[in-house]
Write the structure tokens for this entry.
Amino acid sequence: MGRYQVCVYAIAKNEEKFVDRWMDSMREADLIVVTDTGSTDGTVEKLRGRGAVVFTEEVKPWRFDVARNLSLDHIPAVADICVCTDLDEVFSPGWREHLEQAWQPDTNTARYLYNWSHRPDGSPDMQFYYSKIHSRKGFRWRYPVHEYLYYNGTPLQKTVYADSVVLDHYPDPEKSRGSYLPLLETAVRENPEDDRMCYYLGREYLYLGRFPDCIKTLKRHLSLPASTWAEERCASMRWIAKSYHRLGKDREAYSWYLRAAAEAPHLRDPYVELAQAAYEKKDWLTSFFAAEKALSIREKSKTYVNMGYSWDHTPDDLCAIACYRLGFLERSAEHARKALELSPGNERLKNNLRLIEQALSK
């Protein structure tokens, strides 16, 4: 079919409703292998009916890394490129051709654009570059949740950017993430010095509204010797700041947002989140400063998550509101127009621009 033998592999459980869409997307591969971990609906039968090779294996106690390694083990040794996806994910058509154009004989990992979430109009929201495409040998999955593909082979790992390969995520809103917290707590107990799992545990506490636990855990993350990745340290500081803000401790929140911005000055996210926190406190000067700093950053990160609200109308909207409150009406109008360009159907933005222009006319 192409220059390389390409195999898609996945794990699944009770995902019958996604099978047709997923198989349509993955059919550009030479082989599709799925490890079913206990479906009670028609997932297995439907996958086999569509041409997938399906293995059924129980994983107890449940761990994502064990399940993914079982699935990886079912890929034939002759495969050149292994593509790991989930059934709630969809590639843009033509992905295989783009992948093969980027792949070289000595490549063993490819990074590609992953749209983790979408806005109501279907446009991408949260984005980052994924790396779940890899060569057959030398890779294993690690960690019970937020599992990571680890390479211990030879030669040295060589990664290519397959920029034209785009994977979209359409999660099942009915699926619970209730298993994440116990799995993360297990991971931290297994390896207390692991910075990755400590970070994810702290973030999970934030999601659950356990703000003191989030602050404590992420401060510990920042103190770990292995915690050296500036962009993830920045994220830790942002979640600490957000937790302090939710606890009503805005002085601490501001301080941590500024620390986050200093840690990774090429990211918009800490500035936009600071601008939003200041907006909620009607601190217009800080909101203006932070939103303008965010807008001065022109390029998205290729190595970390890009939050959708940092790259949509939000920074210009916050800047327009702050400028209006500060009496900078011409600058307010400029940002309001830009915000509306980025979200032309937004009635609130239309009304804001109308009010600003009326003030200018006076």
